[in-house]
């Protein structure tokens, strides 16, 4: 707790208890802790009227364990199984919407799946809510040994007025400006007025943004008598080394400070300064400063654009999307229904990088294929000019930029494909992004086939492709990728399971995996492997939806570029990273270096034939 408080007095309670209290637990791959938390909810001296468990596509059998728990207990539990991992931010947004809209809650008690409340925790929080007239009450969060947990310390409200302070202290509480979702009781009226947490945050700072939004003009308190255990693996604060996820910390803080408008100028200075100090401490203590510095740069780039609306991020989830849209619409933050009244598909961008050696006619053909020729057209096309280009290509870019929905992002110098894609992702207007190359052709039904899978919960959807040679009707090969999450995961240990120019993905899922990183001609494989390891829901359509140019000669074009010493070095770097990240076993790493590395020195014609044989049947190794 921020400070010691006086003992509460016995003054009369100014407001009645909420009539209906619903607990919301967001779960991901912590089955045993989740069950311990449910046991603790059932043992509360003031039990919640219902519990909403939002399962974020767990892979450890959590949903089945919850169903067994429900059958053995009398506490009403509503199990919501999300088809994709929406992160803590998406899970809490979905759970809050469910509790408020579908269950009609008067108060909602939020907590993580590794939170175990003491028996009187809810009763004490309800008493504090009633006696202080607050919009939220934060519990005292301790670790397993009883020490206050430094990860979840509420921020005391600066400059609190005397009346608010007296009301809080009289109830044994402290006024706060922000709090954690680890155990937080909310007045549902505030939720209906302000809407839901920002699902685009995915992880980190979603609770900071949301609670500062709720408390901009409302009271909030931390209650010392309401105690919960946060059973994290280790005891540590928010300045522990976040590794690859530092990009989310930076991006989300920038969104909070520059986009959310939840903090007044004084708060912005106070919390901005505290954030800067914490980042400095984190960098100073880290043994992987290169990772954090890359995350800092990527987070700044992503933080300059607006986060996608929560209703957009959580689209395509059936009743969950309906609940989210209803709560956000009531708060003035989202339309009540899709404008056309038809099947709900998320809006999406096409991301297409262009560089100096691209052909003008092929670029125009590529853009036409993803716009006027598509059965389902994109809401935005973003062309990323990677450095200076010849005059004719620049004129074509200028002409394309004049088309409705087409924008050009001009990078002053050539930064390479990985960095150009990261720059583009930071500027796309929507969370769902389709990839396209400047010399390829998307078939008319591509997006109409892929977007329903995204709407149904997939984070990454690829497809087969046709290889074309001298012209677009010169089909010289066909690539059929592995299909089904299990086969894709197996295949990924030996080969890139996705054809990069065919993919549609969620920008938030890409960011959660650390984004694109420089690795010559293998930045996509490295990204997709990390997405799979991070729990992204993946799928491939076996049918070809893109025509991919490989060149007129079997000794030139894309296959020629995939051989030689430079690519062998990239292969070694890739395999070293996959092994270090635990994606491959030692035996798989050795096999990959020998087979995939040796493949780089095979004559181009032989390499082409072998590759087409392997990828053409989507073989898993």
From TrEMBL:
Domain Glycosyltransferase 2-like span(s) in chain numbering: 24-153, 349-505
Gene source species: Kineococcus halophytocola
Protein family per UniProt: Belongs to the glycosyltransferase 2 family.
Matches recorded under InterPro entries: Glyco_trans_2-like, Glycosyltransf_2, Nucleotide-diphossugar_trans
Protein name, entry field: Glycosyltransferase
Alphabetized PANTHER family for the sequence: GLYCOSYLTRANSFERASE, GLYCOSYLTRANSFERASE EPSE-RELATED
Assigned keywords, A-Z: Glycosyltransferase, Transferase
EC class name: transferase
Keyword Phosphoprotein recorded: no
Known EC number: 2.4.-.-
UniProt-listed Gene3D superfamilies: Spore Coat Polysaccharide Biosynthesis Protein SpsA, Chain A
GO MF annotation list: glycosyltransferase activity
